[in-house]
Known about the structure:
Number of domains: 2
Radius of gyration: 21 Å
Helix content: 25-40%
Largest sheet: 4 strands, antiparallel
Structural class: alpha+beta
Strand content: 15-25%
Shape: elongated
Number of helices: 6
Strand order of the largest sheet: 1-2-3-4
Number of strands: 8
CATH architecture of the largest domain: Roll
Distance between the termini: 31 Å
Order of helices and strands: EHHHEEEEEEHHEH
Amino acid sequence: MYIEDRTHVNDDEAVLPTPPEGRSRVLEYYKDSKKLRWATSFWLFIGIIAFTSFGALGRGMSLDFWVRYPYIILLPLLGGAVPLMFTKHQIMTAGADWVQWGRKWVDLYDLGTINVIVAGESFALQVYDNSGRKAYLPVDQVQGNPKLWDLVYNGILYSVEHYATVKGRGCRKVLRMDPNV
């Protein structure tokens, strides 16, 4: 989403991080949805109940074990709470030549190393600039805003063309880069 000179975003009134000192203003951002986190928790809760119930039925137990052993309800409650407790609600922002996720930022046009790693069911970029800064960028979140992805991808392509090291098996394939570049 294009940002004028605002410090607040309409959805959930989250405050955008300020740009790194000496850098251009925030041009694009991505903020994950609270609704998605709650939906993930709900479906994880339901999944744990279903898995536990089918497991009990498979062992010849009846479903009254939920009543006989009331403490067992803690399993789906705690399992469903994991996405809410352990996921950070961070905003990814980018300017003309930088990207920031949380408190970490890198200069996109001075990258030294680009690495793609598997992060759960998705991929993440580990990028290091030549000044020693590093950032971890979940690919699904960077691509959640196409204009943000354009800013990041253009910086990556520029850096690769200017001798940045591309690491990781299949990194160029994930980034859809020409293997000859």
